Amino acid sequence: MRRWAGLTLWLLLGAWGALAQSRPITLDDVNEVASRIYCPVCENIPLDDCGTTTCIEWKIEIEQLLREGQSPDDIIASFVNRYGQHVVGIPQDGTLRLLSLLMPLLLVIGAGFVAWRTTQDWQKRKNAPLASATATPDGATAYRDQIEQDLG
């Protein structure tokens, strides 16, 4: 009896997996994948928002690939392999992804350092003793004396 119950349970689980795979592909499924891919013609427009002929063809291809049982990640990897990194918003290559995340951070740190150094320089200039107004070079004193003599 246990053997039949186990066999029945095993068959039901197998049928459940087959039914789950055979569910129809909806427009939402296609748009979920298309939202992660960018239009090759328009700039910075996701495939699910674009209505160009190329985008419509790509959506049809995505639907066919989903029907064949490919996962969304496999489909995106296929598009990246064929058309390059520019079809996805975030680079798929680990090094490029790390660079795209670190570069803004490094730029902010660099800008902060430059701002800090500039502030330090301003503080040094502000606190530096001013040159005396009465102290003049020797040539300037002679020139001033000559002007006072001419005017007076």
Compact description:
With about 150 residues, this protein is mostly helical.
How are the SSEs placed, and which strands pair?
Layout (H helix, E strand, L loop, with lengths): L1 H20 L5 H8 L18 H15 L4 H12 L10 H34 L10 H14 L1
Helix pairs in contact: 2-3
Question: How would you describe this protein?
Answer:
It is a single chain. The protein is mainly α. The protein has a domain at 23-105: Helicase, Ruva Protein, domain 3. 68% of the residues lie in helices and 0% in strands. The protein is built from six helices and no strands. Helix 2 packs across helix 3 (53-67). The chain is rod-shaped and about 110 Å long. It starts with a helix and ends with a helix.
Features:
mainly alpha, 0% strand, Helicase, Ruva Protein, domain 3, 152 residues
Give the end-to-end Cα distance, rounded to a whole number of Å: 131 Å
Would you tell me the overall average pLDDT?
A: 79
The coarse overall form would be rod-shaped
Name the structural class: mainly alpha
Indicate the multimeric state.
single chain
